[in-house]
Write a structure and sequence with these properties.
Shape: elongated
Number of helices: 17
Radius of gyration: 24 Å
Largest sheet: 9 strands, mixed
Distance between the termini: 31 Å
Structural class: alpha/beta
Helix content: 25-40%
Bound molecules: ligand BES, zinc ion
Number of strands: 20
Length: about 500
């Protein structure tokens, strides 16, 4: 799908479908395009009781009164209740809707008011991202003719006021990179775990490095090397699996880098729970337990297309969590790279074990200004925040603020949670330094974050629990059912702003 910016009057754009947006009862911009067209539109609005309320859609055959074949008028609701998030949803919903007309060429007119309220580059970026992300499909394994025959949208013309073209071009360029890489992460998540093994993730990392022409470097630690480094917690998780673990390190180190950042992604390629086996309904979607890893890989892939002024190291402790005769058992004690011991009372709380060693490795090799991890860590976070919102914990106000600002721009929903130090007692072990599950039932996402905080030393750090938004169980406007690629845009935006 190719996007083209044009300053053309929208009634003169030739397209199979033209989308225009309108706030409630503010139709003058639509009705100003010739008397005949105007009365036709007005009559249709009256007949179909179209008032421009939020997400109300009027679809018309234009009968040659304007150059486009079909016109879609999309309501935005009340202007004073409108915000940047609703802008994305409106665009996403309208692109979903036009799929039924099977257009090859689409044109879209973004309302003037958006440019008054927000900068042109961010408006165009948001609109292009919303359109691309809403149309994502994972059809690789569909063999029916119907899916194959579906005509894809080839071209999208974005009608932009002439004065805003150059800013809009910046937004478009960035949106294409962020959307493409978000979809890259979605593909990785949607692939079944029989494909997305730790070895496969390592191969993807290697190919990202290869395609980067030297900008991104990769190093893979095999089991023996991890053993030498003393990564007993990470290797403990991998013990039950026939798939070899791969500890993946990506680095992007431009000259004269401003800041040094470490990104850590949970990379459990399948989480059965281990011997603390999950019930089947909870296991069904557990191929998604490498979503954090997919996001980190996608962010590094973006560096090959868009230069960032910071040094970034990506760490993915990839392995599979399986039950077997060799698996870690409840009650076992593992020793981490920094010597801290963990009593493993539940083998399903495996993500934190792999992250403990990943953090320790990162901090022993790099001296980062910031460390950010993304992990599908706890069902408890979904209980607390639902399926759309990621929990965010951290120990540095300015880093937390910067990530909140980035999320505001990208429309990814995050919510600040407390690192409540009084709850630390709940993860004290009788016989080791710490235990991997808590005493009692409440606050499980917080105690998981507190567990991680035991391994961040004095680094400025933020943890995202993305168990909810990483994987959609039903379609949402911007994310079709399946892997979401949550955090790709957020991290890129954060790095751009930094
Ligand atoms: N990968 C899961 C968390 C998860 C649950 C992600 C649902 C996405 C959707 C994690 O490894 C896990 O199993 N956590 C346990 C921790 C518990 C045993 C303390 C959980 O949340 O039940
Ligand atoms: Zn688990
Ligand atoms: Zn898990």
């Amino acid at each position: 799908m190719k996007f083209i910016l044009k300053p053309t009057d929208w009634n003169k754009i030739e397209a199979d479908v033209l989308i225009v947006y309108t706030f409630e009862k503010q139709f003058s911009h639509i009705l100003a395009k010739g008397r005949e067209f105007s009365s036709f539109v007005q009559q249709s609005m009256e007949r179909e009781l179209f008032e421009g309320s939020a997400n109300q859609i009027l679809s018309l055959s234009t009968k040659g009164l304007i150059s486009a074949y079909r016109l879609l008028i999309v309501g935005l609701g009340k202007q004073d209740e409108f915000n940047f998030y609703k802008l994305r949803v409106a665009v996403a919903k309208s692109f979903r809707k036009i799929k039924e007309f099977k257009p090859a060429k689409v044109a879209v007119v973004l309302p003037e008011q958006w440019y008054h309220k927000y900068a042109a580059d961010t408006v165009v970026q948001a609109a292009v991202e919303a359109a691309s992300l809403s149309l994502y499909q994972f059809t690789k394994y569909k063999s029916d003719e119907e899916t194959k025959k579906q005509r894809a949208i080839e071209e999208v013309i974005v009608s932009v006021p002439a004065s805003r073209i150059s800013a809009a071009e910046q937004g478009l360029k960035l949106a294409q990179i962020t959307s493409e890489n978000t979809c890259f992460a979605r593909d990785l998540i949607n692939e079944p775990s029989v494909v997305t093994t730790p070895t496969f993730l390592a191969e993807i990392a290697t190919s990202i490095a290869k395609e980067s022409k030297g900008k991104v470097k990769v190093k893979i630690l095999e089991r023996e090397e991890a053993q030498k480094l003393g990564m007993g917690a990470y290797l403990g998780v991998s013990k039950g699996s026939d798939e070899p673990p791969k500890f993946i390190i990506l680095s992007y180190k431009p000259e004269r880098a401003k800041k040094r950042i470490v990104l850590v992604g949970k990379g459990i390629t399948f989480d059965t729970g281990g011997l603390s086996l999950k019930p089947s309904e909870h296991m069904e979607t557990m191929k998604m337990d490498m979503s954090g890893a997919a996001t980190v890989l996608a962010v590094f892939r973006a560096f090959t297309q868009f230069p960032i002024d910071h040094q970034v190291v990506g760490i993915i402790p990839a392995c599979e969590n399986m039950p077997s005769g060799k698996a870690l058992k409840p009650g076992d004690i593992v020793r981490t790279m920094i010597g801290k011991t963990i009593e493993v009372l539940n083998t399903d709380a495996e993500g934190r074990l792999t992250l403990a060693d990943a953090f320790s490795y990162a901090l022993s090799k790099e001296k980062p200004d910031y460390m950010i991890d993304l992990a599908t860590l706890t069902g408890a976070c979904m209980v607390a925040l639902g399926q759309e919102v990621a929990g965010m914990w951290g120990n540095d106000e300015s880093l937390l603020n910067a990530l909140e600002k980035a999320a505001d721009t990208t429309g990814e929903k995050i919510w600040r949670m407390p690192l409540e130090s009084e709850y630390k007692d709940l993860i004290k072990s009788d016989i080791a330094d710490v235990k991997n599950i808590q005493t009692g039932r409440y606050g499980g996402a917080i105690t998981a974050a507190l567990f991680l905080s035991e391994f961040v030393q004095d680094c400025k750090w933020v943890h995202f629990d993305i168990a909810g938004p990483a994987f959609e169980e039903g379609d949402t406007p911007l994310v079709p059912k399946g892997g979401a690629g949550f955090g790709v845009r957020l991290l890129l935006q954060f790095l751009i702003n930094l």
